[in-house]
Amino acid sequence: MSDGPTITTIAQRAGVSIASVSRVLNGLPTKADTERRVMSAARELGYVPNSAARSLKSRRSNQLGFAMADIGNPVYLAMIREIQPLFKAAGYRLVLHSTNVDEADEIDVLRGLGERYIDGLIMVPLRVTAEHLNMFAAARAPIVIIGSVPEGTPVDNVRTDSRKGVRLAVGHLHALGRRRIGFVNGPVDTVPGAARSAAYAEALPALGLPYDPSLVEVGDFYRTDGARAVARLLEREPDLDALLCANDLIALGALDVLRRAGRRVPQDVAVAGMDDTDLATIAWPALTSVSMGSAERGRAAAELLLDRLDNGRRAPRVVTVEPRLVVRASTTGEETP
């Protein structure tokens, strides 16, 4: 029994090479005559291998991508909840990709835009390298970046002000009378890690407090790594009376460590996180956190991408979402069941 037409039979019918057929079916630039012959042969043979082939004329897959560091992070889930309904209403399917903060994987995703398996991409890179910037500039499909990128980068961009968020949290802890304010960060070679590290170092002197590097510990943006970093900091600086964590996952690890150490939150140590994820409301005690507008950033990115698909020649836009402090029991008072 025949398996049906293939790119080989299309190449034979069209009188072109297999490579030429592959280029046409994947939406890559090809001579007009070659494209016409391949499309004609594909229709005659009834060749429909995937969405790209079904869209030979439109060159659209009706799919849009979202590439993030970790699909289990509630920050990205908040974004997805906003992105998917907008894409669906516009007639697109959402394709998710978790990069695990792997630069090579992110570059592969960007390079894959040339194959047109998706019509556009929202990406949240934690590190932005020279190769990222080269790929942004050369991208053959629309891209929206969530996070900070250098000025002049030719992509639509949605960002928030991490530095202002840190200042809000440190100012809140200081207003509560805390003076030994520790800081547990993620990797400082990431965009958020670098911004939050710099902001913490600036915020303390602005409040009349010395910057003490011994009060700073670096781990990763995960609960278990955060807990280990908090444990190291607490062993080194047992007299700290407040703790700012670079995200809510680290802060949850901090609550675990402090509980095991017999330190009460917030009586002994006030704890604040960043991102204001769903986890902040179910933590015990409920976690004070700086909202970085995850849902708003997701919605803005989706709107920018859809607009770009309709208005491909417009200048890149930058949307900034303002952070805000959400105060809960982990800094202001222990709740009771």
From TrEMBL:
GO function terms (MF aspect): DNA binding
UniProt xrefs under InterPro entries: HTH_LacI (IPR000843), LacI/GalR-like_sensor (IPR046335), Lambda_DNA-bd_dom_sf (IPR010982), Peripla_BP_I (IPR028082)
Family annotation (Gene3D superfamilies): 3.40.50.2300, lambda repressor-like DNA-binding domains
UniProt xrefs under SMART domains: HTH_LACI
Domain HTH lacI-type: 5-58
Keyword field: DNA-binding, Transcription, Transcription regulation
Keyword Transcription: yes
Keyword Transcription regulation: yes
Pfam families: LacI, Peripla_BP_3
Signal sequence region: none
Protein name per its UniProtKB record: LacI family DNA-binding transcriptional regulator
Annotated organism of origin: Sphaerisporangium corydalis
